[in-house]
Amino acid sequence: MDRNLLLAKSNLEKNEFKVKIFESIDEMKKDLLNEIEINKTIAFGGSMTLFDMGLYEDFKKRGNKIFWHWKAKDKDKELELAKNSQIYISSTNALTLDGKLVNIDGVGNRVSSMFYGHERVYIIAGRNKICKDYDEAIERVKNVAAPKNACRLDINTPCKFTGKCNNCNSPDRICRVEVIIHKNPTGGDIRIYLIDEELGY
């Protein structure tokens, strides 16, 4: 198992997060489906990690009521409904070895939901999201996650063409809100699931 996963887990726990490590996606999905009750409403944050592993389909097939703007015809309505869900599931742009979550968002719905408004939050991340420190995390977000998401969304930002952050003033800029979660917020219940695989951007 990747040693960085073990070190990140230890420091995330020191920062009062609940953490589990899994060797595979299938192992993680089995645990998550067991953890989240069938009567709970669930909202998903925009995440290629979640999209690629098919979690939305798993919970929908089981019978949970799920909100995800990526799957909705009326995205604005879905985002509004998602605010009142009991469970929130997302990934993170980066997490540091000293146990912090680092995220940059365009709208802010994903990052705000990670720490406020839900009974329980699950953050799922592959080993590729682990960074040495804040500086490396920001480097990863701006020069890996952002350009790839700009290409996926087919928006007109410089990073889509250069593959790196230009600190642009484009109307399509997707790096608008930065959030660092240093410790599990008071009264919060953030559970972090680390997987020993390369997942998402």
Automatic annotation (TrEMBL):
Residues 8-195 form the LUD domain. InterPro entries: LUD_dom (IPR003741). It comes from the Bacteria. This is YkgG family uncharacterized protein. It comes from Keratinibaculum paraultunense.
